[in-house]
Amino acid sequence: MASSQCCENPPTLNPAGGAGKVVDSFGGLKAYVAGPEDSKAAVVLVADVFGFEAPNLRKIADKVARSGYFVVVPDFFHGDPYVPENAERPIPEWLKLHTPEKGFEDAKPVIAALKEKGVSAVGAAGYCWGAKVVVELAKAKEIQAAVLLHPSFVSVDDIKEVKCPISVLGAEIDKMSPPELVKQFEQVLSANSGVGHFVKIFPGVSHGWSVRYSEDDAAAVKSAEEALADMIDWFNKRLK
């Protein structure tokens, strides 16, 4: 069950945000894209429940793009992100319509479209809800590197089945993936010598911190920037 932490600090969505552009169809989904179109390495960012118009997510996409990646942020919710103000559709009801499993199926044509463009290495990073999509891609060996940020709905059994290098960036204060669970993930990955891994628990931050921070909170911004640097570093090691 999704905790209230899933929905704290909702962003003010901006369909025109970011230095990149929105395309009507990338692998069948509307998407925000940024970075060099001819790059051989690409990164797919999978949003939390607030979707692909979140300003901080687009800033992250632009920064990843500046490291030389072609970045795609698909609209996995088909124009229907979670809206906290909609009392008639609380998060459990919204999740029935937007399962991570459906997101995983929708992500496959996006990755196929990247390969058609000439991309040879694809990484994916997922936030909260999006982390479950990314772990499914990692289990299916659809991608070459994965990053899970404050994951939701990811189990130890999921981690046991991962088939590509994976980084897990967790929060100290997280009901969805408490530090005890993230440490279990690390134990499982350490026992699997065939899969490279990096696991880190960020002190003093809560679920959602890496993408739903306030620009006015210097400490929150610093932690989010550290998570982004760790993510880019992981992709640089595994995709280039």
UniProtKB/TrEMBL annotation:
<protein>
    <recommendedName>
        <fullName>Dienelactone hydrolase domain-containing protein</fullName>
    </recommendedName>
</protein>
<dbReference type="GO" id="GO:0005737">
    <property type="term" value="C:cytoplasm"/>
</dbReference>
<dbReference type="InterPro" id="IPR029058">
    <property type="entry name" value="AB_hydrolase_fold"/>
</dbReference>
<dbReference type="GO" id="GO:0016787">
    <property type="term" value="F:hydrolase activity"/>
</dbReference>
<dbReference type="Pfam" id="PF01738">
    <property type="entry name" value="DLH"/>
</dbReference>
<feature type="domain" description="Dienelactone hydrolase">
    <location>
        <begin position="29"/>
        <end position="237"/>
    </location>
</feature>
<keyword id="KW-0963">Cytoplasm</keyword>
<dbReference type="InterPro" id="IPR002925">
    <property type="entry name" value="Dienelactn_hydro"/>
</dbReference>
